[in-house]
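S.,

Sequence below, as promised.
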Amino acid sequence: MNMRPVAFCAALIVTLSAPSAFAGPPASKVFLNGVPAPVYFNDGDSFRVLSGRFQGSKGRLAGYNTLESYGPVHQWGTWTYKEMSVLAKMATLNAQRGVWHCTSDLKTDTYGRTLWWCEDLAADQVRKGLAHAMSVTTEPAKAVLIEAQKEAIAAKRGIWAHGVPDYVLTSTHATSEDAEGRGTYNRLVSSVDGHSLKWKHDNDYPECTVVCDAGVDTDARQLAVVTKLAAEPTFAPIAASYDTTRLLKITNAASQGASIQPYLVAPEHGAILGPLLDGYKAAGELGRNVTGAKACVRHVDFKRRFGGGRAECLK
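The prediction came back faster than expected:
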C-alpha cells in the first residue's frame, strides 16, 4: 500500500487546523459610540481596538470588574485559586463571543485607557456571575448592575457559587511599588452595592504573599476614631505629639490587628495607646467585622505577572 497520499492528507489536516502564524488576535464586534469596530478582549473588562477611528487605543469598561486572568490569584469561600482563575478566563471568553454596544466621552483612567460604558456586556457578565458590580468611589454602582448581581448571588451563579464575601479584594499594591510617594492602598468592592473602599497601608508584600480582607473601613470612620482618641483623658496630654496623618496610620494598623510600630509611636506612649486601641477594636469602632467569606488575593508585582519570568505562584 502506498502511504504517501495518507501521509500527505494527514500533514494537510494538521496544517489547516493549526493556527496561522499570520493570524491576528481574535476579534469581537463592538459598537463604539454607534460605529462598529473590531476589538480584542484581553480579559473580561478591557479591550484593545484593532481598527477604525480608535485603532490602537485601549479601553477599560466601567461599572463592573472581572477577576484577574493572569493566574490563580483570587480565592474566597470554598473556591480554590485555580477554580477562580478558570472563572476569570470564562469572563474573557464570554466577552469575546458577543456583540456589544459601548459609549464614551473619551475620558481616560490613570493608565491612559479610554473609559467605556457597555451596558449590555456589563449586565451580561454580572448576571452570569462572571463579574461583580463596581464603583471606584464610595457611591454605589449603577442600579441595573446591582439588580443583576442580586440575581446572580441568589442563584449562586459563577463567582458566587461557593461563598459571598462582604467585599471583593480586587487589587493589592506593595509600598515598594509606590514610586511617586502617593501612598499605598488595596481596593475592596462591596458585594452588596459595588461601592469601593481604599485599604490604606504601609505593607511591602513579598512576592506571592496571600493578602485577605482585614475589615478596614472608610477614612471618615477612622477619622472619627482619631477625633475621639484626641479627647481621651489619658491621651490628651500627649496628643500634640501626633498629627492626624500619623494617627490615621496608627488606627489603620490597629484595625488590621497589627502591633503598634515603633516608628509611629514613641515607646513611652505605647502603654497609653495600646489599651485605647484595643478597646476601640473590641467595640467595632476601628473597622468592619468580616462576616462573609473572606476574600483573598495573592500579591504579584505587575512586572512579574506575564512572560517566562512570571512569579512561581502563577505557574
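The radius of gyration is 24 Å.

Coffee later?
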